[in-house]
Specification:
The complex is a heterodimer. By secondary structure, chain A is an alpha/beta fold. Helix content of chain A is 41%, strand content 32%. By secondary structure, chain B is an alpha+beta fold. Chain B is 32% helix and 29% strand. In chain B, β4 and β5 form a beta hairpin. Chain B is globular. The mean pLDDT of chain B is 96. The chains are: A alpha/beta, B alpha+beta. The structure holds adenosine-5'-triphosphate and magnesium ion (MG).
C-alpha cells in the first residue's frame, strides 16, 4: 500500500494506491493522520482511484478520519472509487456524511 | 460435480490477501463476472479478519479453516475458527454493532457479507468458536 499526498491552494489530496484491509490499516491511518495534522486547506480529498480493494476496515478508518476532519472544520470528500469500493461505501451509508467529488 | 478447496492457515492478518485471492482464483474456471469476484474477495476478507481479530484476538499461533466448494455454479464458503465465540449472534449481525469501537471498527462486516452473498449463516458458541457459512450463485451453468 502506498499513500501519497498532494497539496493545493484549496485542498489536500491523499491518494491510496493498493489494497486497504486490516493488514495495511495501521500504515494508512498513520500517514493520513499526518496529512490531516498539517492540513490548513478547506477540503480534504480521499483519492481512491488507485485503491484496488477495501473491506469494512476501510469504513472504520474513514469514519475515524471524518471525526478528526470535522473537528478541524475541514470538509472531507471522496474521489474515484471503483465499483466495488463504491458499493461498500454506499452499503455503509458513508455518502450521507462524506460527499463524492469528480 | 462438486469441486472443493480446503485450507487451514495461521490466524495472521498478513494472510488475508492470500486467502481472499485464493478463494477468488478457485472460482475463476466458472468465468464469474468481475463484480462477483470482487464480492467474493470482500466477504472472505470480512470473515477471515473477524476470526483473526475477534475470534483469536490477534493470536497468530491459532488457525483459521477455509472451505470453498463449487456445485453447479453455486459457491459455498465456510470460514471457521476455534476462538472465543459470539455470545449473541443476532446482536453481532446488526449493522454498526461492534465490540471493538476503540479500534475504529465500524461493525459493518456481517452486513457486507449478507449484502454481497445470496445466503449467510453464523453458528457460534462461546469458548468453542465461530463458523460462518455463505453461498452465492456465480455461474449459470457448471462448465467446470
Ligand atoms: N469470528 C468471530 N469470533 C468472535 N467474535 C466475532 C467473530 N466475528 C464477529 N464477531 C463479533 O461480531 C461483531 C460484529 O462483527 P462485524 O464484522 O460485523 O463488525 P466488526 O468486525 O466489529 O467491525 P468491521 O468488520 O466493520 O471492522 C464483532 O465486533 C465481534 O464482537
Ligand atoms: Mg468485521
Amino acid at each position: 500500500m502506498q499513500v501519497k499526498f498532494a497539496e493545493y491552494a484549496d485542498a489536500i489530496v491523499v491518494r491510496l494506491d493498493g489494497e486497504l484491509d486490516e493488514h495495511t490499516a495501521a500504515q494508512v491511518r498513520q500517514t493520513v493522520d499526518v496529512a490531516i495534522e498539517m492540513c490548513r486547506q478547506r477540503v480534504f480529498i480521499f483519492d481512491f482511484s488507485k485503491l484496488s480493494f477495501m473491506d469494512s476496515t476501510g469504513i472504520g478508518i474513514l469514519l475515524g478520519r471524518y471525526k478528526k476532519l470535522k473537528s478541524k472544520g475541514i470538509e472531507p470528500q471522496i474521489y474515484g472509487a471503483n465499483r466495488q469500493v463504491d458499493k461498500i461505501l454506499q452499503t455503509a451509508g458513508i455518502y450521507s456524511i462524506i460527499k463524492k467529488t469528480s | 460435480m462438486k469441486n472443493e478447496l480446503n485450507m487451514k492457515i495461521s490466524a495472521d492478518i498478513a494472510n488475508d490477501a492470500f486467502v481472499r485471492s485464493t478463494v477468488a482464483a478457485f472460482c475463476l474456471p466458472l468465468n464469474p463476472t468481475i463484480d462477483r469476484i470482487e464480492d467474493i474477495k470482500t466477504v472472505v476478507s470480512e470473515a477471515f479478519t473477524n476470526s483473526v481479530i475477534h475470534g483469536y484476538d490477534g493470536d497468530s499461533s491459532k488457525k483459521v479453516e477455509i472451505t470453498a466448494s463449487l456445485t453447479d455454479g453455486e459457491l459455498e464458503i465456510i470460514v471457521k475458527d476455534e476462538g472465543c465465540g459470539i455470545a449473541n449472534v443476532q446482536e453481532a449481525m446488526q449493522p454498526f454493532f461492534t465490540t471493538k469501537p476503540e479500534q475504529e471498527r465500524s461493525g459493518m462486516g456481517f452486513t457486507l457479507m449478507s449484502t454481497f452473498m445470496d445466503d449467510m449463516k453464523v453458528e457460534s458458541e462461546v469458548g468453542k468458536g465461530t463458523r460462518v457459512y455463505m453461498s452465492k450463485k456465480i455461474a449459470e451453468v457448471n462448465n467446470a
